[in-house]
Design brief:
The chain has 321 residues and is of the alpha+beta class. The protein has eight helices and twelve strands. 28% of the residues lie in helices and 16% in strands.
Length: 321
Amino acid sequence: MAKKRPQTKAKRPQLTDGQFPVVGAREPCPCGSGRRYKACHGRAAAQAVTELVHRPFEGLPGECDWVALRELVPAATVELTLKDGLPEGVPSVTLATVLPMAWPALRRDDGSVLLGLQNDTPSGDISRDLADTLQRALTADPGTPVQARRAPADGPRLQDLLDPKGPFEPVVHEGFEFWVPDPENATPDVTASLERANAAAIPTVKLTGVDSAYWCETPEKNHLRWVMPHPEEQLLDALARLHAAGGSSLGEGTRLVGSFRAHGLTVPVWDLPSDVRAEDVEKPAAEFAERLAAALAADAPLTADERRARGGLTNRQVTLS
């Protein structure tokens, strides 16, 4: 009978957590533990990829407008400022609500970059997914789109790439002509795509007198949807105080109908008569903002009427993300 060879243990490579390469889930872990990657160092990576970040835009300039452009606004763009400046050959970086063919990003022929915001993202952290797409777009060949992929779990987030002091000033468009530099001379296919997208866009206007409030027009009635940065419980208490006191409307024929949650923020929604335009609610919205500030500062317990009003608002609350 042949003798069994003595078993020797191979020396495990000395790697730090940040040095482990990504391998197949069922392959041996590169750390040398003998376990499969998915049961060893891949477990933390998988958890980081799937764990939901409830406020992915927190810490960015204009967090409320990031949420609005992600969830509410059909066609808008924002010029982004990178923390380290623009790379050579990239004249500008522009955030866009949506891009043709739902591309995650596009490097134009002139080297400029368009980054799409309303795309599905493969992980639970929209900020990390967008940052990965942006980095790849900055080095993509001019004239090519950037395809979707799963971002590395330890990759940078938008908060790491964008200048925290840079402006965030959304420009709302009536249509998607910003997709092409010269829409009047676009090909028939591009023209047809633009026409379809424009026909589906809900007319939307950003108010100028208050932050992150957007008027929109629908066939039956108009709406004002206002993304607010206040903690949810405090904001609901304040809205309940105003509602119980008859101070939650934006004028005759308008009413606060509820709110929804989106990316960790609360978005109150008002119904408006169909003849009320965006300019008509500028002054009422500014006056409401003053009433809301006073209600937010109140710390007395809610009255019975206010508790009932709060219950009604809570029952009509919807979570989008």
